[in-house]
Amino acid sequence: DGTVLTNNEAYYNLNKLLPDWPFFPFCMDHHDSEKRDLAAQAKLFRELGYDGAGHLAQEFGYKGIGTVNVTVEQRAKSLEAEGLRLNQVFARIFLEKENPIDLKRIAEIMPTLAEHRSQLIVLLIGNRAANLDDKAVAMLGQIADIAKPYGVTIAIYPHHQDYTQTIDEALRLVKKLNRPDEVGVMFTFTH
């Protein structure tokens, strides 16, 4: 009927339909023209009716993108101060590097992810013409081993020009790994 809902009205109506699905902003801080600090971002998210927020992890390949020099733990604390949770953390795995991701740091953030019931979202970066499936599956397996005791799930995020650019490519790796309760695929309509 052409009715436009405010964020709070839309959230209320969505929550009636999907009460267990959190509603949160995605890629929020690097599109913030006002360049708010973490506390101001969290306050804004609460005021807009969100359940929490996602985070582009500086320590996992997002250096210089979004709110710079911020750790996963700092983002989580800023959200907690507003009664919100950290819904997702995004990390890049650089498949062609000797050390594709800092597994020690992955282990360090797991208690925070578990406390917030966060999901770890991974983007697989590598030459699309190369066969990096074995390395990708091995890395995903190592991360899943670290995450499993904490109940943290992992999702591959297909992204333009990444090694897994399409859902089919990401599903190929998930099937090879064969840990369906631990590693899956996510998609968004924005990319």
Summary tags:
191 residues; disordered N terminus; 6 helices; alpha/beta
Helical content stands at 25-40%
Distance between the termini: 28 Å
Q: What's the quaternary structure here?
A: single chain
Low-confidence stretches: 1-6
Biggest sheet strand line-up: 1-2-3-4-5
SS-based class: alpha/beta
Per DSSP, the total helix count is 6
Principal-axes shape call: globular
Tally of DSSP β-strands? 5
Order of helices and strands: HHEHEHEHEHE
Mean pLDDT: 87
Reported for the largest beta sheet, the result is:
5 strands, parallel
Q: State Rg.
A: 17 Å
Strand composition percent: 5-15%
Give an account of the 3D structure:
The protein is of the alpha/beta class and 191 residues long. Helix content is 37%, strand content 15%. The protein is built from six helices and five strands, in the order ααβαβαβαβαβ. A five-stranded parallel β-sheet has the order 1-2-3-4-5. Strand 2, helix 4 and strand 3 form a beta-alpha-beta unit. Helix 2 packs across helix 3. The chain is globular. The N terminus is likely disordered.
